From TrEMBL:
SUPFAM superfamilies: NAD(P)-binding Rossmann-fold domains. Belongs to the polysaccharide synthase family. Gene3D superfamilies: NAD(P)-binding Rossmann-like Domain (3.40.50.720). Residues 2-223 form the Polysaccharide biosynthesis protein CapD-like domain. This is Unannotated protein. InterPro entries: NAD(P)-bd_dom_sf, Polysac_CapD-like, Polysaccharide_Synthase-Rel. CDD domains: UDP_invert_4-6DH_SDR_e (cd05237).
Length: 285
């Protein structure tokens, strides 16, 4: 199958044909710097596209819906984080009002996935360097592909409506240490360049937002939080009213959705400050 989740009619048609029992919603745009530069595209895919999939899943009567989210949704400060936080809220809403179970899982950085820091660093090393890191002290949570797969499967088995499940990924890892290990013993020596945090990036990621109370699940390595449900009327048809250049309307939409509907912190007015996007393969996460 090949289709665009922004195409509501085609998504609904496909779900009506297949009548799936379990849905793992992993379709999303996730490259933070590009989404900062193109916020409308982020919302079209990660918010309105997710709503299309949720609508189709509910109409098809699925028994389990697992929304793949990110740790960047906790105390969001980027377009990526805001869009995924909104998708969590929409998923929670459907769980409370439709048959079946609708929940989210928050991922850290998946090692070896497309666009991951290891992939980017290796590409930079193969090109002769330099390896770029945003800040000497920046840290991120990491999980292996195997851990990510297990989290999704376990979430589908033990999660409940309106929850966001998070895997215990251990201690966060300093990105500069990862870069140094990969560059060690390489001849000729590969330089490491620190480029500075980009708009929307955090020094340290968080698994749970301020005010979220985490609870132990039935799995010893998985905790969960309850996500406030977001009424889809907050986001329906907004894409027809917000153009790619209408940042004021887009900021108003984000502020209204995040603070009024989800009860999160206010959205800063400089959230759309565009980052440098000339190095798409930049390894700094």
């Amino acid at each position: 199958m090949l289709l665009d989740i922004r195409d509501r009619d085609r998504v609904a048609e496909l779900f009506g044909e297949i009548r799936p029992d379990v849905v793992f919603h992993a379709a999303a745009l996730k490259h933070l710097p590009l989404l900062q530069a193109h916020p409308v595209e982020a919302l079209k895919s990660n918010v309105w596209g997710s709503l299309s999939v949720l609508d189709a899943a509910a109409a098809a009567g699925v028994t389990r819906f697992v929304n793949i989210s990110t740790d960047k949704a906790a105390n969001a400060c980027s377009i990526l984080g805001y869009s995924k936080r909104i998708a969590e809220g929409l998923t929670s809403y459907f769980g409370l009002r439709h048959p079946g179970t609708y929940l989210s899982v928050r991922f850290g950085n998946v090692l070896g996935s497309r666009g991951s820091v290891l992939t980017a660093f290796r590409a930079q090393i193969e090109a002769g360097g330099p390896v770029t890191v945003t800040h000497p002290d920046v840290t991120r949570y990491f999980m292996t592909i195997e851990e990510a797969v297990q989290l999704v499967i376990q979430a589908g088995a033990i999660g409940h409506d309106g929850e966001a499940l998070v895997l215990d990924m251990g201690e966060p890892v300093k990105i500069s240490d990862v870069a140094r290990r990969l560059c060690a013993n390489h001849v000729p020596e590969i330089p490491i360049v620190f480029t500075g945090l980009r708009p929307g990036e955090k020094m340290h990621e968080e698994l749970f937002a301020d005010g979220e109370a985490s609870h132990q699940s039935d799995h010893e390595l998985i905790r969960y939080v309850r996500v406030p449900d977001l009424d889809p009327t907050f986001v329906r048809d907004v894409d027809a009213k917000v153009s790619g250049k209408d940042m004021a309307s887009l900021l108003e939409f984000l502020a209204r959705t995040m603070t009024v509907a989800l009860g999160d912190d206010p959205v800063p007015s400089d959230v759309f400050e565009a980052p440098r996007v000339d190095r798409v393969a930049d390894g700094a996460l």
